[in-house]
Write a structure and sequence with these properties.
It holds the Pfam family Toprim_2. GO terms for molecular function: DNA binding; zinc ion binding. It comes from Neolewinella xylanilytica. By secondary structure, the chain is α+β, with helices and mostly antiparallel strands. It folds into 3 domains: about 100 residues, DNA Primase, Chain A (Alpha-Beta Complex), CATH 3.90.580.10; about 80 residues, no CATH class; about 100 residues, 3-Layer(aba) Sandwich (Dna Topoisomerase Vi A Subunit, Chain: A, domain 2). The chain is about 25% helix and about 25% strand. It has a 5-stranded antiparallel sheet, with helices on one face. Helix 7 links the parallel strand 14 and strand 15. The protein starts with a helix and ends in a 15-residue tail after the last helix. The relative contact order is 0.10.
């Protein structure tokens, strides 16, 4: 990979792979705002912009630049060569093929970013498991039953009981070869349908770091009534556990899909179509990306889609609502069955 190729890479996709998701999208998806990956903050001050056919970034009152500049700062590199090697290891395969999407039933080049074009082009034809998602620096070490006071304490602070956590989550140990340590890092996580592990860090007690080991894909939990025909869709594992807690149950009647990232839309769509669900209940975040995704679900599946995000507004997600002591006020027509 040369510098021109690196500068043409999709920076929001790179940031997503490094565990950073946007909190606000403006200018039709051409400008995305994040909490700075370089410091702790409550309000987003870091943004990416799609200008002149390329992504650039700016960190408020600090610095900005190209994809290469971002990787050098994020990973602590002092040479462009190291940054290029890192990007080459992150992306493998046909990096610079022009994606083709569908517009009005016809093939069309995707020339500008949108919610999904900057996160793996979710409307592309075909389905591919993102097996190069997990950074080459992260290595799965072991998966064990969940027994960690630190994790239990963190989950309790999020309103999730030990019993529910042990039913759905595992202790995942991994190594980060960019930050060698005598002992493996540990996280809580769930296995996805392709045998990868979706993880959330626990080593520092904050749960802020999210990533995937081996590969990224959706996670599916079967409902307690086979053939129910309904499926509930969540962005993250804690959203699912939060709804179970609100309903006072350990399993929904219908199936549950954890997207693990909005970039998994195409995988989610394909799974829903293959299973022939007749009802889709959405519990996506009350923010711009989440609600743009809800609109895409509605466009693709029509009146079998029920968007429940307004039911837990003004909270951003189900876990925020749970911690605030709220209980979604579902209407009889749209109420999911616990």
């Amino acid at each position: 990979m040369n510098t021109d190729q690196a500068k043409s890479l999709d920076l929001p996709k790179i940031m997503s792979r490094l565990g950073h998701e946007p909190v606000r999208s403006v200018k039709g998806g051409r400008e995305l705002w994040y909490k700075s990956p370089f410091r702790s903050e409550e309000e987003p001050s870091f943004h990416t912009s799609f200008l002149g056919g390329k992504w650039i970034w700016n960190d408020f009152a600090d610095q900005g630049g190209t994809v290469i500049d971002f990787i050098m700062r994020h990973e602590g590199y002092t040479s462009v060569t190291d940054a290029l090697n890192f990007l080459t290891s992150m992306f493998q395969g046909h990096l610079f093929d022009t994606p083709v999407g569908r517009v009005g039933g016809k093939s069309s080049k995707l020339s500008s970013p949108s919610l999904f074009s900057f996160q793996q082009q979710a409307r592309l034809d075909g389905v591919a498991v993102d097996r190069d998602f997990s950074e080459a620096t992260l290595e799965l070490v072991a998966v064990k039953p969940l027994q960690s006071p630190l994790i239990f304490s963190y989950l309790a602070s999020r309103g999730i009981s030990r019993q529910l956590a042990q039913e759905y989550l595992k202790l995942v140990q991994y190594r980060n070869h960019k930050r060698p340590s005598a002992k493996p890092y540990f996280a809580f996580g769930q296995e996805n349908v392709s045998g990868g592990w979706e993880i959330r860090s626990a080593s520092d007690g904050t749960g802020k770091f999210k990533s995937a080991l081996v590969c990224r894909d959706i996670t599916v939990h079967s409902g307690r009534e086979e053939g129910r025909g309904a499926v509930s869709v969540f962005e993250g594992m804690l959203d699912h556990l939060s709804l179970l807690t609100m309903f006072g149950t350990s399993r929904l009647k219908g199936d549950a899909i954890i997207m693990n990232a909005l970039s998994s839309y195409q995988r989610t769509k394909t799974y829903i179509e293959a299973e022939g669900y007749t009802r889709v209940d959405l519990f996506l975040d009350n923010n711009t990306p989440g609600q743009e995704a809800a609109h895409v679900f509605a466009d693709d599946f029509g009146d079998i889609v029920f968007n429940h995000s307004p039911s837990f507004a003004p909270h951003t997600d189900l876990n925020d609502a749970l911690r605030a002591g709220a209980h979604p006020d579902f209407t009889p027509r749209s109420s999911p069955e616990p």
